[in-house]
Amino acid sequence: MKVTLIAGSNRANATSTSLLRYVESLLKAQDISVAFIDLAQLQLPLFSPDNWEFHPNVRHVLEAIADGDGLILATPEYHGSLSGALKNALDYVTAGQVAGKAVLSVSSAGGPLGVSSLTHLQSIVRNLHGINCSEWISIGSGSHSFGSDGRPVDEEVSSRVRNGVDSFVNLTRKLAATATVANE
User: Pfam families per the record (predicted)?
Assistant: First the structure.
């Protein structure tokens, strides 16, 4: 199984990226192959439907999404929504690259939780015909601390993240098995 993770902040040392790095470590501990895209390091030009000759960075993102069995999207919450960097990246994506794949939405917020950004992400996923995981992961301002091992300092947060990742992995495996049977 291969999972594509997209860190949707263009801020250095973003909490949402740290959270996604922890998710990455949980997936790798289960011997799951991971493609990690950090939009702070792999910047994309502003999407325009008038230009379909994509920049190499855009092609890299689209190939990683197409190659993955599942997708995890992480964003900071800005003004009740997802980051502009992640929205711009998702504007390049077509339904054929996401359709039928499990998608887990992850956020970090300056307030208690980033529920609005998660709701917006799940709406975008539905429009791309992806399958939203029944769980989502959000951490608020009180849980932004990570230890030297990359794990959240707050054990409750760490447990919630593990549960969300486990739910996502189970869904991704079920969908992959269903796709294999359908293709036989």
Answer: FMN_red (PF03358)
Q: Please, which residues have CB within 8 angstroms of residue 155's CB and are 6 or more apart in sequence?
A: none
The tokens of 99 are what? 């359709």
Output the 3-class SS for 92-113.
Answer: CCCHHHHCCCEEEEEEECCCCC
- Contact predicate 131/104, CB 8 Å: no
What letter represents residue 7's amino acid?
A
Q: Give the CATH number for residue 127.
A: 3.40.50.360
pLDDT in tens, 43-75: 999 999 998 899 999 999 999 999 999 999 999
Counted domains in the chain: 1
* 103 touches 125 (CB < 8 A): yes
Q: Say if pTM beats, i.e. exceeds, 0.90.
A: yes
Domain interval for residue 177? 2-183
Q: Are the C-beta atoms of residues 117 and 133 closer than 8 Å to each other?
A: no
* C-alpha span between 137 and 6 (Å, rounded): 14
CA distance 181 to 175: 10
CB-facing half-sphere around the CA of 162: CA atoms within 13 A: 10
What residues contact residue 129 under an 8 Å CB cut-off, 6+ apart?
95, 98, 99, 100
Q: List, for residues 5-39, the tens digit of each pLDDT value.
A: 999 999 988 999 999 999 999 999 999 999 999 99
